[in-house]
Amino acid sequence: MALLEVEDLTVEFYTQEGVVTAADGLSYRIESGETFGVVGESGAGKSVTALSLMRLIESPGRITSGEIRFKGQDILGMTEQEVRSIRGNEIAMVFQDAQTALNPVYSVGEQIAEAMRHHLGYDDREAKERTIQLLDTVNIPEAESRYSDYPHEFSGGMQQRAVIAMALSCDPDLLICDEPTTALDVTIEAQILAEIEELAEEFDTAVQLITHDLGVIAEVCDRVMVMYAGKPVEKAPVEELYYDPKHPYTVGLMSSIPRVGDDRDRLQTIPGTMPDLVELPTGCSFHPRCPFAEEVCTRKQPSLIDADRDGTLDADHVAACLEYTGDLTEGLDYEVVVEGSDEERVVEEDQNV
Amino acid sequence: MSERTEESILRVEGLKKYYDTSSGFIDSLLGRGRSVKAVDDVDLELREGETLGVVGESGCGKTTLGRSILRLIKPTDGTVYYRDEELTAVSNVRLRRLKKDLQYIFQDPFASLNPRLTVGDIIGEPLDVHDLADGEERTERIGELLETVGLNASHTRRYPHEFSGGQRQRIGIARALAVDPEVIVCDEPVSALDVSVQAQILNLLEDLQDEFGLSYIFIAHDLSVVEHISDRVAVMYLGEIAEVGTTEEVFSPPHHPYTEALLSAIPEPDPLWEDEQITLPGTVPSPIDPPSGCRFHTRCPRIIQPDDYELTQAEWRSIVDLKLQTGDAESVGSLATTEEESVELSSLTRDRLDELIRSEYSLPRRVSDEQAEEVLSSAIDRLHAGEIADANERLDSAFVSPCERRPPDQYRTGDAHRIACFLYEEENDEHDSAGRADAVVED
Lengths: 353, 443
Description:
The structure holds 2 protein chains of 2 kinds. Helices cover 29% and strands 24% of the residues of chain A. By secondary structure, chain A is an alpha/beta fold. By secondary structure, chain B is α/β, with parallel strands linked by helices. Helix content of chain B is 37%, strand content 16%. Chain B has helices spanning 25-29, 62-69, 92-98, 119-129, 135-148, 165-177, 195-212, 223-229, 247-251, 257-265, 313-328, 350-360, 370-384, 388-398, 402-405, 425-433, and strands at residues 8-20, 35-47, 51-55, 77-82, 85-86, 102-105, 183-187, 215-219, 232-237, 240-246, 411-412, 418-419. The chains are: A alpha/beta, B alpha/beta.
């Protein structure tokens, strides 16, 4: 049994413009101890997925169908009280914007200690001691004197560290990190990512890492799910995704990143923008932007299927493209070039269009 | 800079921008205000038709630099020349005229467009201000501009909220283009955008440069973006230029230890990438009281050791860290940490404290240099006695890196490549003796 199993999750938001399907028939699982990446552009439904796991979707949003099983228990069927005992305890979350995630009128230490007093029943002294230890674990210098500092006295990187300390305080089995390093400088990003990796190993915690940055994914994740317009378009082990991407959107994303050391004059782009989630294009949602789209793509919605076509049942590498059901006549035409020696390699996706 | 090239369109000399921290009358009365040196003595030039990238971590003064160059904020000191005119000295009326040639693209496409104006009016505003077009001509020009940046001319009556982030950034670009400028300062124009849209905007900026012969100052924190778009790059650290040169010279291979660290910190979209990452400790120090000498010495992995010692680089770095920490620390407890929770540090034996401190700073039981070891262990003795100030004094007087003593000049290692790092002092001399006498004079 996997640690977390999400099946056919659909989340809808009822807005004045119409119904927004933020997550549409999403299924994935996370094994204990692994790092699972969710990547996509803004509006792809990454954060909504994370919030659903904690049952934090608020009106006008609603989880309309699907099942989320955490250690075999159905989270969606739980009472509010049961969910509260899991939230922050067994499943913890690190938010993108640490400054807003911390309450400005409580000291940082106090906020971290609160979760432990609540979930683990620590008394004030125990909670404080453990908090100082945690602050030290996440490399906050002079943890003891920093305990009573307020969030505004911390730098951005330190605030994010404090949020990580808070998330780890109850020794969760699953840590959801929603763009944990997006607001930080590269040097600090490198520190924080190394820390998340290290801590996940130390505490044997599974991590669901949400990001738009394919570089971050490559560095820390074991398996990846690429999302587009509320739907997963490709799921694969990290190496296969980068060296053998199956979905045109994944290819497009990778070729649009500028890389140090590549000397392309122009970047490949994905034309257009993410569609309006109220009025999704018919058929495959990606077809208006896809260089390989054919007439059939406007009619038929692809489902996630084994992209290697080797017939194994529980395929690791799946993609939602009609190419793999044999519906495309022209096929996909791109190649992945890994250039240079081990020291200086550049992976380049070339779309021959 | 002492040299001047024919094509230089914008020249910055000794530019400084200090902010005062005093808040209000009482503070200034008591002289409590201190100055934040956001930009400190920057020399740069922008050549015609080129893109000059400016990179650095947040808080290093990139934006302040961009804004003071165009006099959107008033520089404290220094001069900026646009062609032959001294931008920092011209009257406000003249400045307004000159703004026709000098435009700015803002970072946040959500905050930089007036939500109450239609797109047509946003783009039309600079046309009105500079009296460039009105009536039919104005409408036509707006439509033309929208199409230039890849939007539809029929969008003029829409409001900014009806557009996505990438489209708004295009509107911001159209507004900057409206007056047919020569120079555009792009302040993080793509950092708020998704990767696929980011690539579109970068390509658009390059196309526009070719079409209209624009010169860009491109400010960004993302090195791969800067490397992609720039002809030359300036790396900033704490208000100063650490290194400037052509993109090739600066990045492949990197020279300045700061550039090297920044480059290696970029997460590579390649799972099998196995390059050693240099992790810089800590964050950018406060610009209120910047470190002495080379401002990067508190974090530099390649900090130079004095000739008196023969330590490994890792040992030397750790000793400097310890020294810096004892200078700031309030108690011995904050220097070393224990696994067991409730051990009172003052009750530790000398040996145990020694062990803890060495493990905290990853120092070996004995450092490889006898003389250094002596000072180190005597400092730990003082720490054990609880006298931090004394320990710090010992460390301070014994371990002084040349990097701390005086700020490095900008050493010249190539025609246009200047590096502010003592590691390149010798190359500078070589380069000089090879026939170049016009080394950069500073101070």
